[in-house]
Amino acid sequence: MNAAELLDRLVGFATVSRDSNLDLIAFVEGYLDEHGVEHWRVESDDGGKANLLARIGPDVAGGVVLSGHTDVVPVDGQPWSTDPFTLSDKGDGRLYGRGTCDMKGFIACALAEVPRWTGLPLETPIWLALSYDEEVGCIGAPRMIERLLADHPRPAAVIVGEPTMMHPVVAHKGATNLRTTVTGRASHSSQVNQGVSAIHVAARLVTRIEDVMAELRAEGRVDEAFNVVHSSLHVGKIQGGTAINIMARECSFEWEIRHLPSDRFEELLGRVNATAVELEAEMQRRAPEAGIVTEALNTTVPALADDNNAEVLGLCRELLDERPAGAVAYATEAGQFQREGLPTVICGPGSIGQAHQPDEYIDIEQLEAGTRFMAALGERLQRK
Which of 116, 171, 221, 323 is the most core-located residue (most Cβ within 10 A)? Predict the structure, then answer.
């Protein structure tokens, strides 16, 4: 099967993060078995999802890991013009379907080369590392990376195939999702001296979160490699209250910190928490039971720094005709690989501008470029 045919099969598995990816994993395992490729599952705690590791080539140190996530974001409420889980070719040079660019296109390009790779005298291996639950906090990859390093010879480099239009990316921001819950004291809205409005306090804290970004810019904590040059703090959801004439007892909001590689998540959170401590003390002077609690909704996804990557970046540039490297604002599993000492870059077919959109697509030319990259990688890793 070529890359487009494999992409058709992969898109047909509705691997939305809230659901299992095991049918897709089983399909890939069967495909690898047909070509005599060793592979290993790394399952989630409940067994409902799995990562997949596969090695093409010798069982030795070195070589390249090609990493991609198998899960996709939901299509609920999006105005798709075609079935999102059926690959559609409208004759306009694009292939439509959920996950086409983010990032089953990359996986399809890699799988399409497996039959050729298995026939090459590879000096070092090519690894496939397929993860689950990337879209909800990069949850699956850490245990896959742990298993790779514990049970197998250490690879030399990692290429994470997020959509970059086949340009190497050497840095991205870290990301943490949080929920803050403010508890006040309910009272009739005509008796504002008796209650403490959780909504009013939450609003002050939300404003503080935005103010932190202004402080970072004023302090010159910017990196011009990113299109958003500073660490960003953003509140995406808020809810609270029961009626217009009741001072709200509870209000909660969900927010995120996306920090530059040069910033520390803990320090940025600390600025917001300092304000929360002050507001909580003010609340408790009127209502001792009041409080503010912030909890992390995911383990911090580490940033990817432009560091210790000269060899893998040089490899990508060699295979891609010296394309310049860049940085992206979104977070990926690349930072998790780098945290374990593995030199890592991001490079894959498609545009991030199409990711998560209705009528998501990948240009056929990009799929072909990804296939050429995979073929060149196999040739590069052959014995001299």
Answer: 171
Backbone CA torsion sign across 233, 237, 239, 244: positive
How distant is the alpha carbon of residue 177 from its chain centre? 12
The distance of Cα 131 from the centroid of its chain, to the nearest Å, equals: 11
Tokens of 347: 């490079």
Q: What is the tens place of the pLDDT at every residue in 125-167?
A: 999 999 999 999 899 999 999 999 999 999 999 999 999 999 9
Average pLDDT over the chain reads 96
Give the per-residue pLDDT at 298: 86
Contact in structure between 280 and 292 (CB atoms under 8 Å): yes
Dist. CA 61–CA 153, nearest whole Å: 5
Q: What are phi and psi of 210, to 5 degrees?
A: -70, -35
CA distance 229 to 241: 36
Residue of 200, 22, 203, 6 lying closest to 112 (CA atoms): 6
Tens of pLDDT, residue by residue over 236-289, are 999 999 999 999 999 999 999 999 999 999 999 999 999 999 999 999 999 999
- With cut-offs at 50, 70 and 90, classify the pLDDT of residue 321: confident
**Matching residue, tokens 């299509």:** 75
Return the structure tokens found at 316: 């990508």
Reported pTM: 0.90
Output the six-digit token pair for 331.
């977070």
Residues identified as active-site:
71, 134
β partners of residue 234: 256
Give the CA distances from residue 99 to residues 83, 111, 155, 332, in Å, rounded to whole numbers and listed in that order: 12, 16, 27, 15
**pLDDT, tens digit (0-9, with 9 covering 90-100), for 325-368:** 899 988 999 999 999 999 999 999 999 999 999 999 999 999 99
Q: How far apart are CA 67 and CA 64, in angstroms?
A: 9
**Pairing state between β 157-160 and 344-346:** parallel
